[in-house]
Amino acid sequence: MFSHESVLLLQVALALYLGAALVQVFLLGGERPALRRCALILTGIAFAAQTLYLGAAWIQEGYLPVTNLFSTLFFFSWAMGGTFLYFELRYRIGAAGLFVLGLTMLLLVGALRRGPMISPLIPALDTPLFTMHVAFSFMGYAMFAMAFSVAMAYLMPRFLRPPSMPARDLLRRHNEEAILLGFVFFSVCMITGSIWAYVAWGHWFSWNIKGVWSFIVWLFYAGMCHAKFVRRWQGEGYALLSIAGFGIVLFTYLGIGLLLQSNHPLE
After folding, report:
1. Which PANTHER family match (predicted)?
2. What secondary structure does DSSP assign to 178-243, as a single string?
3. Distance CA 44, CA 56 (A)
4. Are the C-beta atoms of 194 and 132 separated by less than 8 Å?
């Protein structure tokens, strides 16, 4: 599976995502139900292709294939594709999710540039807790990315807003839902990670840089779940917090993994 066929499958997914994004850009000029369905179908097939690759890799390796930079970039893009489909099917966010589609493609391009190679899983990670920890981590990241995308749409000046953009009140609620779901997913990630660390190494938390910044991410979004009830942080303030939060997420995922030494290196 990790040869020409796997590369071709991921390239097909990338082409389909690109087609969906181009259709979404075309829809900025106005609502066209047939084109919207086309964009949704393209995205759905692309996500299905990624899911097929993920399932085949999981079966072949015997564990969730998220052990190096290629596999984490791929899994992040997969989670992003699923997040976009959830919001599009439920709310028809259209143009508000363009950033998510763009980031999905960017992550997939980064994965393809690395090549579909999956590192062996060390014995300490060979546990269902590892699977849950990693899966819920990236599901949380994907929701935080959606919140970023919706926040950017919310802050767009009125004269630049395309006709297909959802109303600001709807964008605000989409942002809040993405933050809440992301916080729930990331909380599960932190809980399973703590249990896993205790089972593997005998402690619930260690002061390594990855652990500290993961806790900062959790604390930041816990604060955001509270901030939506504070009048001065509602609206534009909440959108700005969503943008800042995703910056912290990117640093925690890529900045630490690539630039600093930690127990979560990306190679």
Report:
1. CYTOCHROME B_B6 PROTEIN-RELATED (PTHR30071:SF1), HEME EXPORTER PROTEIN C (PTHR30071)
2. HHHHHHHHHHHHHHHHHHHHHHHHS-S----HHHHHHHHHHHHHHHHHHHTTSGGGTTHHHHHHHH
3. 18
4. no
DSSP string, 15-77: HHHHHHHHHHHHGGGS--HHHHHHHHHHHHHHHHHHHHHHHHHHHHHSS---SSHHHHHHHHH
Tell me how far apart the alpha carbons of residues 134 and 197 are, in angstroms, rounded to a whole number.
Answer: 13
The full DSSP string for 116-183 is: S--PPPPGGG-SHHHHHHHHHHHHHHHHHHHHHHHHHHHHS-GGG--TTSPPHHHHHHHHHHHHHHHH
How many residues are listed for the chain in this entry? Answer: 267
Residue carrying the six token digits 């395309």: 162
pLDDT in tens, the chain (267 residues): 455 677 889 999 999 999 999 998 888 877 788 888 999 999 999 999 999 999 988 888 888 888 888 889 999 999 999 999 999 999 988 888 888 999 999 999 998 988 777 777 776 667 788 889 999 999 999 999 999 999 999 998 887 888 778 888 999 999 999 999 999 999 999 999 888 878 767 777 777 788 888 899 999 999 999 888 887 788 899 999 999 999 999 998 887 766 555 455 455
pTM: 0.89
Number of Cβ atoms within 10 Å of the Cβ of 201 = 11
Spatial distance between the Cα atoms of 101 and 216, rounded to a whole number of angstroms = 27
